[in-house]
Amino acid sequence: MVMPIRGGIITYNISDTQTLYNSHMSFVKDGGIFVPSTRKHTLGEEVFVVFSLPNSSERYPLNGKIVWLNEKGTTAKPAGFGMQFGTDPNSLKLKNEIERLLAGADSSERATYTM
Questions:
Q1: Per-residue DSSP letters for the chain?
Q2: Rounded to two decimals, what is the model's pTM?
Q3: 44-58 residue pLDDT tens
């Protein structure tokens, strides 16, 4: 579930590994993730998102850049944006944790929210 809060901060609570798989953007340099959103965004826009991952109470606050847009949502591909992670320690920690949770899953041919 995605919920914007005051100050332009977006929270993305990823509740299960299927949603994490659908959101993960392994093809983005330094890592990336798709964030469902009904807000209007533009490519290159800087965003601040606080993530939580399945079965974890830890929160990952990250600044990133929008590198993908799904402007018109469908059942298979919701409206939202793809965010490229930075090279800071929080981004690296989140990227590593996502890859650990999805170990072996990214090589499959299942569709995601972006491709």
A1: -EEEEGGGEEEEE--SHHHHHHHB-TTSTT-EEEEE--S---TT-EEEEEEE-TT---EEEEEEEEEEEE-S--SSS-SEEEEE--SSHHHHHHHHHHHHHTTTTTTS----S--
A2: 0.81
A3: 999 999 999 998 889
